[in-house]
Design a protein that fits this description.
Helicase, Ruva Protein, domain 3, five-stranded parallel β-sheet, 341 residues, Zinc Finger, Delta Prime, domain 3, alpha/beta
């Protein structure tokens, strides 16, 4: 049985075990799930390897594709990372069981999922198989947030006042990617100044910024290209990095993915929106989000998430073009939005 403890997750993922070729990364902190999955893929693939992203739609068209891809020899040598985002009600346990019975030699399969119950067949398979790891990702503790803040301020060469740190920790923590993005934004703002103050935290990590992000993300999911363009330009010009906007879009489409699965199981869009965690606020926004859930089919959501994942990765690799890369991707995602009627 290989059930990774949360405290050991980062250490184990930083040193891949060649005997473990299937890694399930799951949990309610979607940002931490994405961060760990991307970091592990980069570690196992290295500079000379390949990173292939698959979605459930690809497997529904060709159920044997996962096994075929895992046993394919990378075109340019090296190792291959294969990321598979789980969504909807499709089952992949049989394909994973086949891989675990005959593990690939040059590939790692990274299965990305949201929260899974202990009784979930996918989670049980990973936890009970010697050739797999099950890595849970839950909301950061105060110690985790202190470590994240220390890492980012050290990398940026800035300091943060004790009262600013304590205030910041009350405003972040539910999503690792968003937390990291907010700290990075503060660090960018503080370069050249004595350090990050509580006033800086209040000014940059406040309700106004959240509302502007929500408006831009809603324009994206509604396919309103003009409103998306205005919102994105306004955010970037006010100092919000593009990757922060991309992270907000990722979280929203992860929610849409879960919401679609819920209404496919018989719940109404309105009830899903009302019971969302964290709550969708202000309440006047809820009808628009309910309409988005109705219109976005699972396959389109998967495609949007794949495009956003790629944009976040490419923006980090090309810092001088990061905002342009994200902006272009957002407009491409907006074209996927189903039209009314």
């Amino acid at each position: 049985m290989v059930q990774v403890k949360p405290a050991d997750a980062d250490r184990l993922l930083a040193r891949p075990d060649a005997a473990v070729r299937v890694v399930l990364i799951y949990g309610d902190d979607e940002g931490l799930v994405s961060e760990r999955a991307n970091r592990f893929a980069a570690t196992v693939a290295g500079k000379d390897g390949e990173h292939l992203r698959l979605d459930m739609a690809a497997l529904s068209e060709d159920p044997g594709r996962l096994v075929d891809e895992a046993n394919s020899i990378p075109m340019f040598g090296g190792q291959r990372a294969i990321s598979l985002r789980v969504s909807g009600n499709r089952s992949i346990e049989d394909a994973l069981a086949a891989l675990l019975a005959a593990p690939p030699k040059d590939s790692w399969v990274i299965v990305i999922a949201g929260e899974l119950r202990k009784s979930s067949p996918l989670r049980k398979l990973a936890e009970e198989s010697k050739g797999a790891w099950a890595v849970p990702c839950y909301a950061d503790t105060a110690r985790d947030l202190d470590r994240l803040i220390d890492d980012e301020t050290r990398a940026a060469g800035v300091t943060i006042a004790p009262e600013a740190r304590e205030l910041l920790k009350t405003l972040i923590g539910s999503d690792r990617l968003m937390s990291r993005a907010e700290v990075q934004k503060l660090c960018l703002y503080a370069i050249g100044s004595p350090g990050i103050t509580a006033d800086d935290v209040r000014a940059l990590i406040g309700d106004g910024g959240v509302a502007a992000l929500d408006e831009t993300v809603d324009a994206l999911a509604s396919g309103d290209a003009a409103a998306l363009d205005r919102g994105y330009r306004r955010l970037v010009s006010s100092g919000t990095p593009g990757f922060v906007v991309a992270g907000a879009a990722q979280r929203h489409f992860n929610f849409l993915e879960k919401a679609r699965a819920a209404i496919d199981d018989g719940q109404s869009p309105d009830s899903v929106v009302r019971s969302a965690v964290p709550p969708i606020y202000p309440f006047s926004r809820q009808p628009a989000v309910a309409r988005q859930i109705e219109r976005w089919a699972p396959a389109r959501i998967e495609r949007a998430l794949s495009m956003l994942d790629t944009a976040v990765r490419d923006s980090r690799l090309n810092g001088n073009l990061a905002d342009e890369i994200v902006g272009e991707t957002l407009h491409l995602v907006a074209t996927l939005a189903p039209r009314r009627g």
